[in-house]
Amino acid sequence: MSVAVVLVAAGSGERLGHGVPKALVDLGGRTILDRAITAFLGQSAVTELVVVAPPAAADSIASTLRSGCPLPAVVVPGGLTRSDSVRRGLAALSDAVEFVLIHDAARPLVPASVVAEVIATLRSGSDAVIPVLPVVDTVKRVAGQQVTETVDRTELRRVQTPQGFRVDVLRAAYAAAPELVATDDAGVAEAHGVQVCTVAGDEAAFKITTAYDLRLAELLVSAG
Amino acid sequence: MSVAVVLVAAGSGERLGHGVPKALVDLGGRTILDRAITAFLGQSAVTELVVVAPPAAADSIASTLRSGCPLPAVVVPGGLTRSDSVRRGLAALSDAVEFVLIHDAARPLVPASVVAEVIATLRSGSDAVIPVLPVVDTVKRVAGQQVTETVDRTELRRVQTPQGFRVDVLRAAYAAAPELVATDDAGVAEAHGVQVCTVAGDEAAFKITTAYDLRLAELLVSAG
């Protein structure tokens, strides 16, 4: 079994206000990207890494990876949209790869156990696997500022990454929908008729978007 | 303007595994309940406080409040369900009260600014006001472990507390639906045809349910 990891790290990080791409923001002495890579290094099935980087930072990230990453790693510049970036990542995989995990670098604290569970579920025959959590808060539908409905949340799940796929399946899904704007890769697969199954995610795999999120991540990292 | 606060603190806290009711769990040197009360003490419109307590802890909570709470406060024992507890809290309000804020004690870190915004929106004429946040993660609908749909989340909001109401409106809504099981008080009001409006919530107002949530709260409190 040969699994590649595509780390989507091309985000600008504008909402963090640090003036550098999000992947390069410091998180307790290491960059967000560096921490995101760590969750994958202990997985024996993972054989290569592709980092989709902000174009302006691609060279410096590549030089950092050359010196410190124990896996074969390549860096490709990101596209204009997340989907463009994933396409570029998929195009950079070696031919030997059977499965791919697409992971948001902005979820640097994903536990290795979640990664392992996604890989195990691919190994057992699934074409597409995503980690999810229940929706704990009450959810309302609104129109403007007015509530129109309380939504039944029992069948709703919050989706995290890494999302795992058979490489040929995900490539075919992206090829079939060159203009599709999906919020996640599983959405592209679903639109292509692929059956997506779920495994348990973890609160620690939350996405860093705002300054509040970064502060939480810093507190979690410093608490060890 | 006279605003009462009903703090729903009757939860068992079983998922926290501390062996005491959740409201009495320590959070950086003060109980969760004590911290939840604090957010309301600085609001000049708030004139009284009702704590709906776990029956076995009602006496000790009452004695603590008598010695330390600057507001008129009463403690009533909770019911079998959250709705029962809220009914008991509403029954304990003084006649002078015009508005009520129903707050989960399990959201002890709600910023005073959110409370103030809920009160201000009631003051401007709304019958029912809830703090909400956007849904940031991709959301899927599932059947068992299989994804059936990616949900459009643009009109979805995560609901927090305190939820604010005209007292007569909320009492009428609860009276009209003696058997309704709603996940929140706004849901009871909606079922009675009340227009509910939203204001901006805050990530810090998250609900403490699991050990992970409590750890986050401890980290946030200790970081100041």
Summarize the structure in words.
The structure is a homodimer of 224-residue chains. By secondary structure, the first copy, chain A, is of the alpha/beta class. Chain A contains seven helices and twelve strands. In chain A, strands 1, 4, 5, 6, 7, 10, 11 and 12 form an eight-stranded mixed beta sheet that branches. In chain A, helix 5 (167-176) crosses helix 6 (185-191). The relative contact order of chain A is 0.18. At the A-B interface, strand 8, strand 9, strand 10, helix 6 and strand 12 of A face strand 8, strand 9, strand 10, helix 6 and strand 12 of B.
Write a concise keyword list for the protein shown above.
two-stranded antiparallel ribbon; 224 residues; homodimer; alpha/beta; eight-stranded mixed beta sheet
Order of helices and strands of chain A: EEEHEHEHEHEEEEEHHEH
- Average predicted local confidence, pLDDT of chain A: 94
Number of helices of chain A: 7
Helix content of chain A: 25-40%
Structural class of chain A: alpha/beta
Distance between the termini of chain A: 32 Å
Judging from the principal axes of the Cα atoms, what is the shape of chain A?
globular
**What quaternary form is this?**
homodimer
Largest sheet of chain A: 8 strands, mixed
Indicate the radius of gyration of chain A in whole angstroms.
17 Å
Residues in β-strands, percent of chain A = 25-35%
The largest inter-chain interface, given as chain pair and residues per side, is: A-B, 47 and 47 residues
Strand segment tally of chain A:
12
List low-pLDDT spans of chain A. none
